[in-house]
Amino acid sequence: MKGVKGVKGIGVIAIGVMAVLVVSGTVLVWAGEQAKPAQKSAVVKGDPINGKDIFAAQRCALCHTINGSGGVLGPDLTAVGNRRNAAWLYDYLPKPQATKPENKMPPVAVKGQELDDLVAYLLSLKGKTRGVKPGVTAWPARPISTP
């Protein structure tokens, strides 16, 4: 491929930059949605201590970060209790693709009291996400290293 002014691969670089901008725009829209505060509520019937154990047993931390620990594929849940409410979580967790069809999160495989406990635990997470200004959700939760 003949380069522009002697620089080879300028077309590839331009395409790469455009791809980054498209992905960044998608992430920013998603992050804005994540930053919205909870609006309606439902009665929380669960035990957050048991919910923490269910969170671990369901291996949620493979994708989600809480207080700087966990995966980076899903959103940081450190302050999810400030952004979401019980009604939203009860609707979302069993069928994430119903809310966001392109979502890669698998349905949470708990029901009844276990779901109540998990929702109570998630609502108890009201901490601050490191290095994030109010109203902005961190994404990714921490830098992704590449080989």
Tell me the layout of helices and strands.
Layout: H1 10-35, H2 48-57, E1 65-66, E2 69-70, H3 80-83, H4 86-92, H5 96-99, H6 112-124
Antiparallel strand pairs: 1-2
Helix pairs in contact: 2-6
How much strand content do the residues show? Answer: under 5%
Biggest β-sheet description: 2 strands, antiparallel
Query: Could you say how many structural domains there are in total?
Result: 2
What is the CATH C-level name of the largest domain?
Mainly Alpha
Helical percentage: 40-55%
Mean pLDDT: 76
Alpha plus pi helix count: 6
Taken in chain order, the helices and strands follow as HHEEHHHH
Low-pLDDT residue intervals, each spanning 5 or more residues: 19-31, 132-143
How does the overall form come out from the CA principal axes? globular
What is the architecture of the largest domain at the second tier of CATH?
Orthogonal Bundle
* Amino- and carboxy-terminal Cα gap: 27 Å
If strands are numbered along the chain, what order do they take across the biggest sheet?
1-2
Q: What structural category arises from helix and sheet content? A: mainly alpha
Radius of gyration: 19 Å
Number of strand segments: 2
CATH-wise, what's the superfamily of the largest domain?
Cytochrome c-like domain
Q: Which oligomeric form is depicted?
A: single chain
What name is given to the CATH topology of the largest domain?
A: Cytochrome Bc1 Complex, Chain D, domain 2
Summarize this structure briefly.
This protein has helices at about 10-35, 50-55, 80-85, 85-90, 95-100, 110-125, and strands at about 65, 70.
